[in-house]
Amino acid sequence: MPLYDLSIAELRAYRGEVVRPDDFDAFWSATLAEARAVPLAARFEPFDAGLKIVEVFDVTFAGFGGHPVKAWLILPRQREGKLPCVVKYIGYGGGRGFPHEHLLWPAAGYAVFVMDTRGQGSSWSKGDTADPVGSDPAHPGFMTRGILSPETYYYRRVFTDAVRAIEAARSHDAVDGARIAVTGGSQGGGISIAASALDGSLKALMPDVPFLCDFPRAVGLTPRDPFPEISRFLAVHRDKVERVFATLAYFDGVNFASTDSTPALYSVAIMDTICPPSTIFAAYNAHAGAEKAIREYGFNDHEGGGAFQDRAQLDWLSGRI
Q: Taking every annotated instance into account, which residue ranges of this chain make up the domain Acetyl xylan esterase (predicted)?
């Protein structure tokens, strides 16, 4: 895949094309207040995953609308005192999968809390959480479900679930609630940016090749799904363009990053044709924190840094939580 986006110099200066709604903060404050009016009711049930050196819990907690959301909590069996915790979100189409898929952080001495993504988990990794909310007419996939209003858009539910997942992780006796980081790749990276800004008290943010950033540029630039789900929807609903992008502004990683001062380590792949590098730099450059860094992988597509980024995260997070 050749270089197709801006030059490296332009990327490092790019600020994005997103307009922040005047009521952005009020919208999310009201959304979270509504969710928190329902008891979190987090349940941690011991789960036999066939893994001897970690302890696994099958978690259920109340997300958006009080809907049950599944997760895994995985802890090192040998531990002293409360553990720092990494809350992990999953890429587009995937679910929480199996516990043995999430052993990096427990192997490094952290707790890991892996949130299932409602309605997903049947494309490449299995999920166990339904999305009981319906939608207006939508293009196949998740990107256009309820897209004609911020109140009904699919990611309002997902981002609310993500904040409640942090609260569920904090509620476990083995977790130090003051030492929590969030991470995820692609969609999981976009969710982590939103969750970090909305929680407002995390120790670290590690979005890996994050999705859901700078919608105005991404939708017209990349040829590979999921962003083109939106352009195909608009090709049919020609009269809904302004309305759609007005909705998306409430869910754009650039707008979340601009309010977040959490220490952050981003990654970007310069040949990424799913999450264009300019859209990731837009979020990174907007990030309000003074302590931030971005790892660039100049010859990679959406696989990004892979194991190299795993090691970079391990090194960067050490001593921060």
A: 1-318
